[in-house]
Amino acid sequence: MTTRVGVVTFPGSLDDRDARRAVRLAGAEPVALWHRDKDLHQVDAVVLPGGFSYGDYLRCGAISRFSPVMETVIEQARAGMPVLGICNGFQVLCESHLLPGALTRNDSLHFICRDQKLRIENNGTAWTRDYAAGQEIVVPLKNGEGRFVADERVLDELEAEGRVVARYLDVNPNGSYRDIAGITNAAGNVVGLMPHPEHAVEPLTGPTTEGLGFFTSVLKQLVNA
Amino acid sequence: MSLDTVKNAEQTPDAAQPWAELGLKQDEYARIREILGRRPTGAELAMYSVMWSEHCSYKSSKVHLKQFGEKKPETDAMLVGIGENAGVVDVGQGYAVTFKVESHNHPSYIEPYQGAATGIGGIVRDILAMGARPVAVMDPLRFGAADHPDTRRVLPGIVAGIGGYGNCLGLPNIGGEVVFDSCYQGNPLVNALCVGVMKHEDIHLAQASGAGNKVILYGARTGGDGIGGVSVLASETFDDSKPAKRPAVQVGDPFQEKLLIECTLEIFGEKLVKGIQDLGGAGLSCATSELASAGSGGMRIDLDTVHLRDHTLSPEEILMSESQERMCAIVEPDKVARFLEICEKWDVIANVIGEVTDGERLEIYWHGELVVDVPPRTVAHEGPTYQRPFARPSWQDALQADAPTAERLARPTTGEGLKADLLKVASHPNQASKSWITDQYDRYVLGNTVLSHGEDSGMIRIDDETNLGVSVATDGNGRFTKLDPYTGAQLALAEAYRNVAAGGAKPLAVSDCLNFGSPEDPDVMWQFAEATRGLADACLTLGTPVTGGNVSLYNQTGEVAIHPTPVVAVLGVIDDVTRRTPVAFAEEGQLLYLLGDTADELGGSAWSQAVHEHLGGLPPKVDLERERLLGEILISGSRDGMIDAAHDLSDGGLGQALVESCLKGGRGARIVVPEGLDPFVFLFSESAGRAVVAVPRSEELRFNDMCTARGLPATRIGVVDGDTLDVQGQFTVSLAELKDAHTGVIEALLG
Amino acid sequence: MARVVVDVMLKPEILDPQGQAVQRALPRLGFTGIADVRQGKRFELELEGPVDDAALARIREAAETFLANTVIEDFTVRVEEEGK
Known about the structure:
Chain A is α/β, with parallel strands linked by helices. Chain A has 5 helices and 11 strands. In chain A, the strands form 2 sheets. Chain A has a 9-stranded mixed sheet with strand order 2-1-3-4-11-10-9-6-7, with helices on both faces. With 84 residues, chain C is an alpha+beta fold. In chain C, 32% of the residues lie in helices and 30% in strands.
């Protein structure tokens, strides 16, 4: 049986098609999920894609977090289902309190789109097991509110527990505390990532294909589970 | 409060009307009375005044624009031509592509962020209205001097607005231009281009046919946006209980537009629409009159059913409102329920506001009273036509006589001098890296971007399976056009055509945005007449029809007009995007060839601007047959694997092209000045019809044979090598030094 | 130190997409009975010196030219009382 990975479309989601393409290229079956539908249609994992759900109005992710589909996603995530939030999806995960901290306006105050070097700090999560620990990858980054912030205690805890999944290298593009690009929950099934691995899955359109690992990782995780 | 109904207009023929304040001429007002056989109502007067404005009726320009139809080249590619929201081109495999470039100049000067944002919104809806999914945007921009304080106000806002709106729609921004020149100080040019893709059978048109079919207005609620001018009317017929001043500025809501796009595409997918029109300038007046005018029969509208954001709006204001993110569709009665259901799914407000009738009039009701009763064609299509006087400016000869000869402008004569000028050109804001600007735009979304900023053209894949793709380049050189409008317009086309071919795509069609000063000035009108004549002639020769576009006049401050600035967009098709040619020199040891002929042509050049702040002489000559041949070589070379990199030569000439290709690939080049060529002319001339290409050694013979057989001059000028740009016998400059000069310039001035 | 508050709101006739999005979301979360929402910005300015007419005039000027975009926004200036 093929692994089914759901990709949620909120009003204003933009990278949902790209995320589905990445899922397909990784060898899984992409399933489109609709924000108003609580039913996850028997998917094995969920991607919350990038975009500007609800226009990023109020706060990024703040309105989406209350959509019907999120009720089920939150419940399933707590039960161990792999969930990856990319960019706006990361913001939704923070607003949902599945992940600590928050994402705020870039320190440059500008939207930024660039090819970003990252270091995979934790290759033990559901979404990073195909990477080597410490592996350096380049994937696109594009955000206006991607600055990860949390209080010192939370940051220390994340560091101590190895829950920083990826860190910016060379350039910290948005002023994130401790160069944090992505984090995970304690169980390692929920990952939030500001850069966009789904845009680095084909040599033709991406700077590299080094983003594909996030999607192949979850496949392995599920097959082995 | 009194309502000016048709009945009232008939009974009070002598009531004074503010036609002059609404911008109508006496004879135009008389013509309206003649058409209607009575005085117009306030609502009718508002409709005619806005639809007969320069902006909507093209009354000064249309006698010249006719040439684009008259001189249209024979082509099978054109599926929908001028006159619709945008032209549609056949790109093969059952796909059709629509594209259009449009201006939003004046609003962007008043409120840079919102002006630029709503400019994107408007062009995207034009593309959507053709039945296409919008897939990419581009922004050709012109600003005043980069170091002028007002540029600091205008540019960051415009760039943020383009990014803020376009990024939020999920449309990759894949190219465009940023040009600085003090002539644009009080009149920045904000042009916006959108590309859309559909299958042939999905093409939709703006027409209302079939009596009994419903008219549905959907999208954002209607507020008092952009109706400043019409307030004259409102203030006479209404009390003081409303906001004192109507906003001239429209605020865009990209989130609403994103929903509108997805909702509309789902509606198209279920074939629920007979005709569709977006609401842009002149809002509902324009949409209803154009839909009715292009269809068979008439239309009846009940304005009371329009969803309002501001309940104090008068019928005139509702008709004029330019609230953004709205569309108007013609739907058969049995499909209305499903249409509304899809709107509900996407949280889009939708309302039946009227129906198509079997009459011949556009009738609009308010509170049950008839307030508009007009033949729609007279509003939408039969506006006035002006034969504005034009004459060659008295200063034109002197300008052309002031040629940048070696005597007039000092030219570098030593290697160090050449190097210094190369760095001056590369670090001038016009040639410097624009990444600070373009990095504020999302170029990755949708996952189909093959070439984007910093390349000669923007290219996207339109089919994942077959790798079919399209590319677009926009170009325009106001300096060349000022020196000679006929040639300048042709050079804009030639450059865009060349840029598309350099990427490996075959140029198919053109869209243009003609930015000029006041048509009431015979000098400007001459520039306009010459530029359109030049462009139409060149389109005929190159076989690329103009499919649509827009004219922006009155770009001037006081008596001083901007440089005449026709911006030309060329669309091309490429069967296999994996064969695309980038500009970067990426392979050590590849051979560099200069294609085309280099003459001493420095008039209007980047060098004359960057080094001497000079504008005079004649622009480079145009040889369109040569452009076509060069294009064919570039396309064949790309398809057959003979060319690994190509960069068109334009602003800054060969020197600038080498700087860009070296920096982009992170590799240097060893260059030999060909015998018989002056090193300065070799590096800085802007002769048209040229490109530099990188050829793998294994392909050299085949490539040379092709050029010889086709009669295209190809000169081997060097090799990709090392980490310096080494012009042998002249100078050597390291990539680090080039990078230092070329990057960081814009952010230092504007960041 | 004295505090002056500048509230900046979109003019009533200008579309407020943010406010509309929030208003549409409220009933879905069970917060009914709210007819309209408009979202604005609040600036808190701590003054070094006393809040006199001259200082307020300068702040109004700052609000007019900088804090607010008066093409589309209105602003109000008020002095925050001690102890509040």
